CA domain-containing protein
Amino acid sequence: VATDIDGQNASLRLIVNVTDVNDNRPQFHPTGHRTVRVRESDPAGNCPVQLSATDPDSGENGRVIFELDPHQPDLAAVDANFRVSPSSGFICLRRSLDYETKEIFELSVIARNPTPIRGDPGAGGAGSRLATATVTVLVVDENDEAPQLQLDYLDGTAEVTENDRRGHTLAALQATDRDRGDNGRVSCQIDQPDLRDVFELLPTAGSASAGASSGQPQRWRFYLGTRDGGPGLDREAHLKLGPTAAHREAVRLN
Ligand SMILES: [Ca+2]
Ligand SMILES: [Ca+2]
Ligand SMILES: [Ca+2]
Ligand SMILES: [Ca+2]
């Protein structure tokens, strides 16, 4: 309001528009490190964690975009297995993880504005990176590996004659399983009860031995099964043994 010496007033209405500048950086909530566990059976598309960040600026200056930090050391493995939703902050699986390949991932995710922050060189550039969050993903082992059974002859003949004494070693077995704990603890057995009197498995030595004298030369075929401590992933092999080397054959079945 302006007043002259005669007391006359004149007024002028001023409207001041305050233009927001992008002077605030997003902040993750909560701040700091996150750890999540992902089972290796979890399918692609599962999103085990959602990151959250806020920015007090208005409009585009306050909009937050999430993305993988392109400068993280394990980027190739992280990018092959995870994707980050730019708008929601969900971290999702591109595919099922495999504990036997990689047990742990360290992810680095950034939150930034789509517009450059004041004083920074430009949106998306290093100067506009605003906040960083790290997430450790622990892959939880499941029983997805079947036992493997390999047969190796020890004596080079695999013949069984009536002169063989009890304890004569016929073959060495190797049973392995890539899982951990009970899921990878294997046991072997001869699956035909009637042949358990003729052959025996010595679990500690990992070998198959001839039992009592066999009588007339004949040909046996006995089945070896391997099982682990988990459900439904048995493996079976069968071993043929004969009176001559020509009959010897070991076949592994999957
Ligand atoms: Ca901002
Ligand atoms: Ca696996
Ligand atoms: Ca496994
Ligand atoms: Ca297993």
